[in-house]
Amino acid sequence: MRTFLSRLAAVVVLLSPLAATAQDASLDQVAKAMGADGVKSIQYAGSGTNFQVGQNFSPDMPWPRFVVKSYTRAMNYENASIRDELVRTQGEKRQIFVASGDFAWNVAADVVTPTPIALIDRQLQLWTTPHGLVKAAKANNATVQGRTIAFTAPGRFKVQATVDAQNLVEKIDAVAPNAVLGDMAVEIRYSEYKDFAGVKFPTRIRQTIGGYPALDLTVTDVQPNVAVDVAVPDPIKQTPAPYGKVATQMAADGVWYITGGSHHSVLIEMKDHLLLVESPLNDERAAAVLGEVKNLVPNKPIKYVIATHHHFDHTGGLRAIAAEGIPIIAHDVNKAFLEKALAAPATIRPDRLARAGKKGTVEGMRDKRVLTDGARTVEIHNVAGNNHHGGIVMVYLPKEKLVVEADVYNPPAPNAPPPASVNTNWVNLSDNIKRLSMTVDQILPLHGRIMPIAELHKSIGHAH
Q1: Is residue 76 within 8 Å of 224, Cβ to Cβ?
Q2: Could you tell me which of 158, 214, 164 has the C-alpha nearest to residue 190?
Q3: C-alpha closest to that of 263 among 240, 242, 281, 244
Q4: Fewer Cβ atoms within 10 Å of its own Cβ: the N or the C terminal residue of the chain?
Q5: pTM beyond 0.85, yes or no
Q6: For residues 109 and 12, which has the higher predicted lDDT (pLDDT)?
Q7: Which residues fall within 8 angstroms of residue 267, CB to CB, at 6 or more apart?
Q8: How far is the C-alpha of 27 from the C-alpha of 395, rounded, in Å?
Q9: What is the DSSP string of 117-183?
Q10: Tens digit of pLDDT for each residue in 292-329?
């Protein structure tokens, strides 16, 4: 069976004059108007604003907005590669996001990190650029009706494009799979086309994802057929399934710190059941964590999964949890959003929940909830006054003197230089521990590594 990429590579061979139809002629008119057939690669640059999808302060707010000082996207349609490099004005943060073929990765300070969870989104971005749209439409047997072009890349995305009276692509309505939202809506609008070396390209690009603004870019430079060489780094090739990697460390008797990647979980054993704190990322990570749970404690069911907050990287595995019929505990701020997400269809790429035909159960809480079996007590507390999220919770085990938290305190790597300024979220965690009169020896961050509470105090300049 040909892959999506191989169909694209073979499109020129497959589209012979003998096979021409009225549909091909319409696509050909669009291709001719934009100069698409001669475009094998393209690079464009500009500035504007972008938004961090899935990271809003609360589920009813837009994605966080950032000013983008410079934005450069380079694409090679022949080998299905895309590379974004942008610099935000806030802190001059440089970001590089890449995909090539069936691999996706990020680059930070020359360190590459596999991000397969972003692959489909980056492929969608590649094949919904105006020229990529024409190539993908031809490769996927698009239907053309009036000024609407529609096609599906099976298991990846569904696209409907609208062209204007000049046969230029002006709007994209797409649906792509998302670990949290199921079928996720993506809208792209192209306007203010100009000619760049015989190729028409929009100088204004606006995008929404999940109904909220995601990008507003003014394009100032376009270079058709520039050399775009995106090689997949060896570490990325050698890590095809990073989310399935699991490592476990016992933090206390009956308490396991489940790591092995960028996002962690914590398993707590009770008398006749288990509690799991966090199911992050996606189905693949959830399956790996659930498999590890069965290895660690094979004869007890998971009674609850505790979700610290709704941010997409931390809730992407909850649909798989719901597929197992396990209830989820979350702060009231997140309850309605999670219920809606767990009831959402996933038709483009049916996930575990869609295949199970179930809907999740979410139990809300406000400031505090206590779970106990008479021997072990587990407290769930709202992290009050936090500026990362309006409904984030932490888990406290009084007997074991442990706190489990996400995103409030992400400890620096070993031997890393101390931060130039005090992190206000770290101070906030310390203040909450003091406010709640907790006795804590160790923190189990859901990013990073187990840290003694003394290290947190030292980092923020507190003696105790």
Answers
A1: no
A2: 164
A3: 281
A4: N
A5: yes
A6: 109
A7: 255, 256, 258, 274, 275, 276, 277, 292, 293, 296, 297
A8: 56
A9: GGHHHHHHHHHTSHHHHHHHHHHTT-EEETTEEEEEETTTEEEEEEE-TTS-EEEEEEEEEETTTEE
A10: 999 999 999 999 999 999 999 999 999 999 999 999 99
